């Protein structure tokens, strides 16, 4: 089964993660700057955790999946540099402690390190597809947040997510509905955390 079919099989959970009130507030300009900044700092921590997960996945992935994974790693390194630039502009402390949702997501990624390669690839696709669809739902974004929304909806990112789907489908193995549901719940909790900061 193609991984994309998971979106229909778990449509309600998917909508909860990709049409979240936080994203609507970013689109409409209703999210307070402090809440957005809290989310931004936590997301930088998440990206650092994802970089470690993806680097280990690349080391054990089959040859056909390596190019897309390596390209994603380069993009994550660039993303961390971009977060540092944003933090300097917005006077944010990227060393702030992980909030519970961020720590829980990091623990989930650590558990997925022990998963077989097909499951780990499916997990990475789920994470990135959720992110792409979520920020696409926030388009065009309120003026204060528009550059962020545009940053996470560029065509290159969509192409990367499509490449992950191809890699996950090509490697085969059974699709893990439980992992999909757990990751989508983790994404939803991350948005909830941001709303809590509001």
What does this structure look like?
The protein is an all-alpha fold and 198 residues long. It has one domain (3-197): Up-down Bundle (Heme Oxygenase, Chain A), CATH 1.20.910. 78% of the residues lie in helices and 0% in strands. The protein is globular. The mean pLDDT is 95.
Q: Care to give the gist of this entry?
A:
The protein is mostly helical and 198 residues long. It has helices spanning 6-9, 11-18, 21-28, 33-60, 63-90, 100-112, 117-137, 146-151, 155-171, 177-197. The protein has a single domain (3-197), classed as Heme oxygenase-like (Heme Oxygenase, Chain A, Up-down Bundle), CATH 1.20.910.10.
Summary tags:
mainly alpha; Heme Oxygenase, Chain A; 10 helices; 0% strand; thiamine biosynthesis; Aminopyrimidine aminohydrolase; hydrolase; Thiamine_Salvage_TenA
Main sheet: strands, sense, barrel: none
Q: Name the helix and strand elements from N-terminus to C-terminus, one letter apiece.
A: HHHHHHHHHH
State the shape. globular
Terminal residue distance: 40 Å
Q: Please estimate the helix content.
A: over 70%
Pathway: Cofactor biosynthesis; thiamine diphosphate biosynthesis
EC number: 3.5.99.2
Binding site for substrate: 43, 79, 128
Protein name: Aminopyrimidine aminohydrolase
């Amino acid at each position: 089964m193609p991984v994309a079919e998971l979106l229909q099989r778990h449509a309600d959970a998917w909508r909860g993660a990709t049409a979240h009130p936080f994203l609507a507030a970013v689109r409409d300009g209703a999210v307070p700057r402090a809440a957005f900044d809290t989310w931004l700092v936590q997301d930088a921590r998440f990206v650092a955790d994802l970089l470690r997960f993806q680097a280990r996945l690349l080391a054990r992935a089959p040859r056909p999946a390596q190019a897309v994974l390596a390209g994603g790693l380069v993009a994550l390194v660039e993303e961390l540099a971009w977060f540092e630039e944003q933090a300097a502009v917005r006077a944010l402390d990227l060393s702030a402690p992980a909030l519970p949702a961020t720590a829980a997501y990091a623990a989930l990624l650590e558990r997925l390190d022990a998963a077989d390669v097909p499951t780990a690839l499916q997990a990475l696709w789920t994470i990135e597809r959720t992110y792409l669809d979520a920020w696409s739902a926030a388009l065009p974004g309120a003026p204060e947040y528009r550059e962020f929304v545009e940053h996470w909806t560029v065509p290159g990112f969509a192409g990367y997510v499509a490449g992950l789907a191809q890699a996950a489908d090509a490697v085969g193995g059974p699709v893990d509905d439980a992992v999909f549901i757990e990751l989508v719940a983790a994404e939803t909790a991350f948005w909830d955390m941001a709303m809590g900061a509001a």
